[in-house]
């Protein structure tokens, strides 16, 4: 038997992929044999650096792998068909049959897709380059920051050392005693703490300022829709449009009302014309009756003159009777008289009440005077008794 040589894993994977592609596209056994020959050539090239002996291939293993791959292909194909049916049923239930229709100009779409992929790859490369540049810049800034920080810390330490050396020989002006090391260290720690607080506040202010600037930029971008176009202008134009639309609707309502009024007025005018013919006839009849009414009017005027004379006589007689009656004919005078009498009665009652109070007060005053007169006499008698005792 001939000696078999082990094939590398890379050539095996290439062989399996070529066999899979040949089975998917339905190539013949001749193509499979050509693929095997190519792979054999590849194997020979790869093994060229190792040994120059003849290479033999065990076809049983490849046939077994081919059968397994075809079996897997059939299984996946059945699964794919089943999933396609499920998708078709789902889209039919949702009334989306247009998804199942084949796309028109698929070649153009593939070309566009390939172009978009190329542009995506270019953009990705460009983004990677930009990211690399940004990282280099950030690294340079960090190095500069570290260098500046080291210089600042060194200068700060030198300043603290100088302050410590100058503070050791200081003397209090009030007490005249030299300043201790603990007080100097306490002042230095307090100064360092205050400096750290100031640095933190400054850093916080810078961050807030940058955030505010970024927000202002974002707000400006949001407010600008294009060159010379702003959101405020759009909103104002939208408000004006709404106002004009409301005015147009109001004018249309007014036009509809005016049209209805015009139709109503036309109907009224037609009805009035019909009535005018009837009123002309009525006027002719009433003009005949007007002469009779004028005669009756003259007679009524004469009767009115006689009635007015009788009225004046009755008025004069009534006025004389009123003068004789006096207060009985004027209600306001009677009302004032009644109010005056009621007020007089109330004042009399109040007078009696006040007189009673005055008498009571006089009685009380007399009793208090009597008691006041007897008090000094009693006090003298008590003093005499005390003296006797």
Topology summary:
Elements: H1 9-24, H2 29-46, H3 59-93, H4 106-167, H5 181-223, E1 224-226, E2 229-230, H6 231-325, H7 331-388
Antiparallel strand pairs: 1-2
Helix pairs in contact: 1-2, 1-3
What report would you give on this structure?
With 389 residues, the chain is an all-alpha fold. It has 7 helices and 2 strands. It has helices spanning 9-24, 29-46, 59-93, 106-167, 181-223, 231-325, 331-388, and strands at 224-226, 229-230. The chain is flat. The termini are far apart.
Q: Unreliable segments (pLDDT under 50, ≥5 consecutive)?
A: 1-16, 18-53
**Oligomeric state:** single chain
Q: What proportion strand?
A: under 5%
- Terminal CA distance: 172 Å
Q: What is the H/E order?
A: HHHHHEEHH
Whole-angstrom Rg: 64 Å
The helicity comes to over 70%
Order of strands, main sheet, comes to 1-2
Mean pLDDT: 79
Total number of helical segments? 7
Task: Quickly give the structural class.
Answer: mainly alpha
How is the main sheet built? Answer: 2 strands, antiparallel
**Principal-axis shape:** flat
DSSP E strands, number: 2
